[in-house]
Amino acid sequence: MCIYNVLLYLSSFKINGVRVMNTITDCTCDYCGHDWKCELSVSQSMACPGCGDRPDIKPSKPAYTQAMADNGELPLVGMEVMSIGVNKIVRLPPDTNRRFLLESVVMGIYDLALIEGISAIKPPIELIDGKAYQFDALDRKELVAIYFEGTERFMRGAGYFNLKDCTNIQLLEVKS
Description:
The protein is mostly beta strands. The chain is 5% helix and 47% strand.
């Protein structure tokens, strides 16, 4: 099994005048001790060039929580965060301009984001189709609407709110 160090390097080059960034990581095989550098996006599936051993990685990504954000804590390298509605992983701590290097969880695309563009991962909530909920969305507080699972939206009169834009979601129940 291969162990990967957290030391990352940014390299950039131009293709047709467009700057392209790569993230390079140091890799070490714990079986034969071979060291090498490779592109981060392929490092977790790449076999050791020395012995051919393949990594057996079970990633555990801690999430950047709302409590951390409320306490003014910055996300750490390896934490999963939300940026522009997409789950991403922090790959480098902030630079002098307060920009983080992030990697999209699904697409593996890298980008830079200011701390203001990073938010906490919302814990999953079990929503019931057709039930009424109270929530906050888009700088509005304590909205009430019906959740529709097929569209992942809260419908309210002629308008709607996308689930990804909503926080503090609570099921409304009739109590007698």
